[in-house]
Design goal:
Strands 1-2 form a two-stranded antiparallel sheet. 71% of the residues lie in helices and 2% in strands. It folds into two domains: 86 residues, Rna Polymerase Sigma Factor, Chain: A (Orthogonal Bundle), CATH 1.10.1740; 67 residues, Orthogonal Bundle (Arc Repressor Mutant, subunit A), CATH 1.10.10. It is built from seven helices and two strands; from the N terminus they run βααβααααα. The protein is mainly alpha-helical. Helix 1 packs antiparallel against helix 2, helix 2 crosses helix 3 and helix 4 runs antiparallel to helix 5.
Length: 162
């Protein structure tokens, strides 16, 4: 197994390029589209990477670590007293009108516990076991969240078609 150490500008740029969009989307889900808070959370995630002496076993280990750090940063921001919620209707995510983007917008309307699990499973390709380890939630709970989240999405899609 190759060990990857955070120690060079080139390495950091590679990690940034590989993960910034994914982290942006994860932070977007938590922070309800507040762009300045999202940018702060992503920036703070990468600052933690710079500060860490962590040795990653692989690119997947690195990605899982970044997701965990970003999730924790966002949770802290959401629970902080200065947090102001932005209505989802006022948010325009990336000016893309593709079907995938429309579904992603619907996912963002789900309750936090469902949208995070659905995003990690369908957009980032994590299994239920991996999501369980990432979020520190029981595996069966992850599968319940996936099931309930999919059902809610189906209902939302039905309403959109009517």
């Amino acid at each position: 197994m190759t060990k990857v150490v955070v120690d060079s500008e080139k390495y950091f740029k590679e990690v940034y390029d590989r993960n910034v969009e994914m982290l942006y989307r994860i932070c977007y889900m938590y922070l309800k589209g507040n762009k300045s808070n999202i940018e702060d959370a992503v920036q703070n995630t990468f600052l933690q990477l710079l500060k860490t002496e962590k040795v990653f076993d692989s690119v997947e280990h690195e990605k899982a670590w970044l997701i965990r750090v970003a999730t924790n940063i966002c949770k802290n921001m959401v629970t902080h007293w200065w947090n102001k919620k932005v209505p989802m209707e006022s948010i325009d995510i990336r000016d893309d009108s593709s079907n995938e983007n429309e579904i992603l917008k619907l996912i963002f309307l789900l309750p936090d516990k469902y949208k995070q699990v659905i995003y990690l499973h369908y957009y980032e390709g994590y299994s239920g076991v991996e999501i369980s380890n990432l979020l520190g939630i029981k595996e069966n709970t992850i599968y319940s969240y996936l099931h309930i989240g999919r059902e809610e999405l189906k209902e939302m899609l039905k309403e959109e078609l009517v």
